[in-house]
Amino acid sequence: MANFQPYDTSSDKAWYYIFRVICGLIFFFLMFPILVIMPLSFNAGNYFTFTPEMLRLEIEGFSLKHYRDFFTNPDWQVAMYNSFRIAPVATLLSVGFGTLAAIGLSQSHVPFRRTIMAILISPMIVPLILSAAGMYFFYSRIGLQGTYIGVVLAHAALGIPFVIITVTATLTGFDKSLTRASASLGAGPIRTFFKIQMPLILPGVISGGLFAFITSFDEVVVVLFVGSASLKTLPWEMFNGLREQISPTILAIATILITLSVLLLSTIEILRRRSERLRGITPS
Amino acid sequence: MTDKDNGFVVFSGVQKSYDGKILVVKDLNLSIAKGEFLTMLGPSGSGKTTCLLMLAGFETATQGEILLGGKPINNIPPHKREIGMVFQNYALFPHMTVAENLAFPLQVRSMSKSDQEQKVNHVLDMVQMSDFGNRRPGQLSGGQQQRIALARALVFEPELVLMDEPLGALDKQLREHMQFEIKHLHERLGVTVVYVTHDQTEALTMSDRVAVFNDGIIQQLDAPDKLYEAPNNCFVAQFIGENNTLEGTVESFEGDYANVRLENDQVISALAVNVGEVGEKTLISIRPERVETEAERCPEGAQKITGEVLEFIYMGDVFRTRIRVGNNDEFIVKSRNSPSQQRLQPGEKVTLGCMNKDCRALDYQAVSKEVLT
Q1: Which of the pair, B311 or A240, is modelled with greater confidence?
Q2: What pLDDT is attached to residue B99?
Q3: Which of A25, A155, A208, B122 is the most exposed, fewest CB within 10 Å of its CB?
Q4: Taking 80 as the threshold, does the pLDDT of residue A277 lie above it?
Q5: Which of B90, B105, B138 lies nearest to residue A186, judging by beta carbons?
Q6: How far is B79 from chain A (nearest CA, A)?
Q7: Distance between CA B202 and CA B209 in Å, rounded?
Q8: pLDDT at A254
């Protein structure tokens, strides 16, 4: 398998194998905790353990009952409902504001671009607990604490930096003469934005949106502060579940969420390739 | 031609400054006739592109007025000016097919689908790209993209088309081919073209008139042959084509001619185009092909200039002989390769012959070589 050159010394060859072992260990360290819960979620027992039946790969050792619990238990259903009620709206807001901000900040005549950019990106850098506490006090004052709109706005603020970063990255490859060309052909600024600029930066917008969605969907700290009992999201319910009763249902949800994340990230990758293809044919 | 009422495009006292201090364009007055092919030629930073952008509406004039078809357009946004434009990097929309690119300006004008299709096919025919409608710009070569860009600027039938160094990115052969295509399209359609380039050959071969820009000012505005054969100042003489300069002092005037004494005390008679008083310095401009290495080959009345051969370069169809005349070591004589043409050896003393009308005494100004390349 290894294609060694005649001049490679024995230590070169040894390093070749050691390097691969190190890489393998890193992957194991990253992936194992995630992968191990997947078979566990099909556990027929009620604990976080591999039962002897499972280890012997007997069919009685496995069951879908934790999945059934997730889909029938009203607590989980409310949590899922809330998550799906909050995340998409927060994502839409993030995408809208983030894209506009990125386009505005990409124009050279805007004053204090770097400062504005730094402020908008800050929710990503400031420790989440600080943002959450700040939002709690601020939202309490203006009556948004514990409301649906409050949680949506808080999540939108967390998602905006992702959209700004991905859209700004796509915009750096955007040829400004295209907007001039569009204007010279008679298209006004709005048509130019939707017909020329938007389709070309769309991959950046969508991948930013996916990050914003995942951020909102996975977020627990801000919801704990800004939300209320009626706005429990999936991560909140999982957090509760872990503290109060260690039910394998959490593993079932985790498996579902992992699958969802993998699907979303694959979409990002496909979009990124599409964007590169489009970029590749942009005359430079 | 500077009459405000006659010009289709008129720049009247236009100035442009980007920073409020330095004028990139200084008091531009230019009138372009309908159907004319006018080229703005100049080195980079001379203000030619800024002028084009002001005409297109992408830059605003700091001072002065720009008129199109008699109406001021200073306050009209670019998308309402109805001016076609071809960009240096083509600026085709990469996410649309060729046909969609061409249909875009027609969609903007809410033209019916069938009319759109007909027009698109017509312009594709015009640029000989009929089979390429379904391709994406990225699948085309540079020359093909340039043709589509040209077609897109023409498809909505604007009366004025601007071209910003459209052939700059093409290789030499293709560039020459496209020059003729653009010229023929212009002749066929009768559209007014304002063309920007820094390539003087391009400017000479394509244009009705050329405006030579330097330092934010039009140095000379003339037909190509006038520009080459009768430059008004030293910059134009140096910038357009190959040029020999001889430094000297005006000694006396004889009608339209000035007698100029060179550094080595030779006196040359030159057409007094742009000189000061007796005693002032001047530069004489002589085209390399207007000098004979054997004075006898010149017509009657030619004057003689003495020099020493430094180098003989055989170039096939022509010979280039580098000669020291006065204190100029770079005096070039271009002679056609004919059986009777002698091949000079370095070190030979020669007597050059040239007509005094081909020697033009111009303003004395040092033109650095870097600006010219």
Answers
A1: B311
A2: 93
A3: A25
A4: no
A5: B105
A6: 4
A7: 12
A8: 87
Mean pLDDT of A239-251: 82
pLDDT for the residue numbered A185: 94
Q: Do A180 and B91 touch (CB under 8 A)?
A: yes
The ipTM value here is 0.81
Residues carrying CATH 3.40.50.300, chain B: 9-234
- Classify domain B241-372 at the CATH class level: mainly beta
The terminus-to-terminus CA distance of chain B in angstroms comes to 30
Name the band, by pLDDT with cuts 50, 70 and 90, for residue A283.
very low
Which homologous superfamily is A75-278 in?
MetI-like (1.10.3720.10)
Q: Which residue has the higher pLDDT, A177 or A52?
A: A177
For chain B, where do the domains classified as CATH 2.40.50.100 start and end? 241-372
Give the residue range(s) of CATH 1.10.3720.10 domains in chain A: 75-278
B87 interface with A at CB cutoff 8 Å: yes
Where does the pLDDT of residue A204 fall: very low under 50, low under 70, confident under 90, or very high at 90 and above? confident
* Low-confidence residues of chain B: pLDDT under 70: 1-6, 366-373
pLDDT given for residue A284 in this prediction: 33
Q: Please report the pLDDT score of residue A282 as a whole number.
A: 44
Q: Which CATH superfamily is domain B9-234 in?
A: P-loop containing nucleotide triphosphate hydrolases (3.40.50.300)
Interface-testing mutation among A184, A190, A196, A279, with chain B (most B C-beta atoms within 10 A): A184
Please spell the DSSP secondary structure of chain A, one letter per residue.
Answer: -----TT--HHHHHHHHHHHHHHHHHHHHHHHHHHHHHHHTTBSSSSSS--HHHHTT-GGGB-SHHHHHHHH-HHHHHHHHHHHHHHHHHHHHHHHHHHHHHHHHTSTT-TTHHHHHHHHHHHHHS-HHHHHHHHHHHHHHTT-TTSHHHHHHHHHHHHHHHHHHHHHHHHHTS-THHHHHHHHTT--HHHHIIIIIHHHHHHHHHHHHHHHHHHHHH--HHHHHH--GGG--HHHHHHHHHHH---THHHHHHHHHHHHHHHHHHHHHHHHHHHHHHHHTS--
CB contact B143 to A (< 8 Å): no
